[in-house]
Design brief:
The chain is mainly alpha-helical. It is built from 20 helices and no strands. The radius of gyration is 22 Å and the shape is globular.
């Protein structure tokens, strides 16, 4: 029988006894119940990481006043988290593989909670920035460990599709949940609770994880690739920082220096990995055509989602005058559509396959963003915004539900953490790219609109809306580009998606 094209398992280097030790046979009903509890725990952790990006954005205006931050410091509160998170993701994934995924999950969750508590109690800008950096560090350990736990505990079958459907729905809708929760906490409690809220969530997740999750780790070659870790950390960090600074102009020195430097360092990283016998990111993970297409789709959809959502929030609050709570509730239809769409699609994905939804999803998402280009200063929510949000949510559900299945299908358990980190890194880089690119396009559109116009409030609001329209248009173009990529590249065999599930694996 020929070897499946999509399989990427490396030759086993572990003794038979160790291989057996990595799998635990259990009573199937008990094992099945345990791993669905595991899914709930991992989903809670993933929600914490995803919503943290937007929940803090809502709190920033109050935090700036309370701590006396400058506008530059305020920007760093957002940038520092994404910078550390993006730079250390691949290393965090390998630590999870070698040190243990359960251990990494618990340490990452606990560290994230401690960092959040420090940030919530911050008395000055330096303490808040330090806390945000620590949050990024522990998130880089927590996120790949969470996804790796799903990968090894749902190795195949329809249950895997359902598990990754929920995970994908949270990845797509968590940002909007952050807007709602951030608005409620900021308005009725304090900006500090936008950070403190992570503490009780972490306590619940850790208390549930200790008895439910069983340890799993890679065996055989578990040496760390130190040169690769250094190159990819500085390479990804340079890219994230460069994109984050692009809002100050694409000709500024951080952009001109950091973006080319990041690309050079990542090229060197690929060169080192191709010659290492213990690579940080085995190139077999990313060179497969199907998986590579999924990674590119993650990059483009992440850029469109995070970049587009930022300007929608600005439109609600600045032009329409919504409060933070109203702004979050106005985004709720998109989140609800993603959640409902994920549940429905997971029931049919085994029959339809992944190629159709991953091709149609970007087209529907682009249609939603194009609809949002029709927003006006007057702002008729029901006609100008709501249909666009429903279309965008539908498109994102069609993308995110199959995305994780494709990106992690055929991954050997030895590489689960590394592959999970690679998927998350693509989405993180995409978010940074989208935010920077759309901010630059927004600024250019605003300036162009104001040329020759007499300064007035009406002209200013018109300029803002013109900028938002430009951002939505380019976000639509970016996400639409994922459609041909999915159509021509994301074509796994049905057996790859629905690989028969092996003996019950509990890590």
């Amino acid at each position: 029988m020929p070897t499946p094209r999509f399989r990427t398992d490396p030759p086993s280097t572990a003794p038979a006894s160790l291989a057996a030790a990595s799998s635990v046979s259990a009573d199937p009903p008990a094992a099945n119940s345990r791993r669905w509890w595991l899914l709930a725990i991992v989903a809670l952790a993933q929600l914490t990481v995803v919503l943290d990006g937007t929940i803090v954005n809502i709190a920033l205006p109050q935090a700036q006043i309370a701590l006396g931050m400058s506008d530059g410091d305020r920007t760093w509160v957002v940038t520092l988290y994404s910078l550390v998170f993006g730079a250390l993701l691949l290393l965090g994934g390998r630590i999870a593989d070698f040190w243990g995924r359960k251990r990494s999950f618990i340490v990452g969750m606990a560290g994230f909670a401690i960092a959040s508590a420090i940030g919530g109690a911050a008395q000055n800008t330096g303490e808040l920035l330090a806390a945000r950096g620590l949050q990024g560090l522990f998130a880089a350990l927590l996120a790949p460990a969470s996804l790796a736990l799903l990968t090894v505990n749902f190795p195949g079958g329809k249950d895997r599709i359902k598990a990754f459907a929920l995970y994908g729905a949270i990845a797509g809708g968590g940002a909007a949940v952050g807007l709602i929760l951030g608005g409620v906490l900021t308005e009725y409690a304090s900006w500090r609770w936008c950070l403190f809220v992570n503490v009780p969530i972490a306590i619940v997740a850790i208390a549930a994880a200790l008895p439910v999750i069983r340890e799993s780790k890679a065996h055989g070659n578990t040496r760390y690739d130190v040169p690769g870790a250094i190159l990819v950390a500085f390479g990804l960090g340079s890219l994230v920082f460069g994109f984050a600074q692009a809002e100050n102009g694409w000709g500024s020195w951080p952009v001109l220096v950091c973006l080319p430097l990041g690309l050079v360092l990542l090229a060197l990283f690929v060169f080192v990995e191709s010659r290492s016998n213990h690579p940080l990111l085995p190139l077999r993970i990313i060179v497969d055509k199907v998986r590579g297409g999924a990674f590119l789709t993650a990059l483009l959809s992440g850029a469109a989602l995070l970049g587009g959502l930022l300007f929608l929030t600005l439109y609600f609050q600045i032009v329409l005058g919504y409060t933070p709570i109203q702004s979050g509730l106005a985004s709720l239809p998109m989140t609800a559509t993603i959640m409902i769409g994920a549940g429905v699609l997971s029931k049919f994905l085994a029959s339809t396959g992944v190629r159709i939804p991953m091709t149609v999803g970007p087209i529907v998402g682009a249609a939603g963003l194009l609809w949002l280009t029709g927003i006006t200063v007057g702002g008729n929510y029901a006609l100008e915004v709501l249909p666009g949000l429903i279309l965008l949510g539908t498109g994102l559900a069609l993308i995110f539900v199959p995305l994780q299945n494709v990106a992690l299908s055929g991954i050997a358990e030895h590489d689960a953490g590394a592959a999970s980190a690679a998927v998350t890194a693509m989405q993180q880089i995409g978010g940074s790219l989208g935010t920077a690119l759309f901010t630059a396009l927004y600024t250019a559109a605003v300036s162009s609109y104001l040329v020759g116009k007499v300064p007035s409030p009406a002209a200013q609001f018109g300029a803002l809306v013109s900028g938002y329209q430009s951002a939505f248009l380019w976000a639509a173009i970016i996400i639409f580009a994922a459609a041909p990529i999915a159509f021509f590249l994301v074509r796994p065999r049905r057996d790859d998606l629905l690989a028969p599930e092996p003996a019950v694996h509990l890590g």
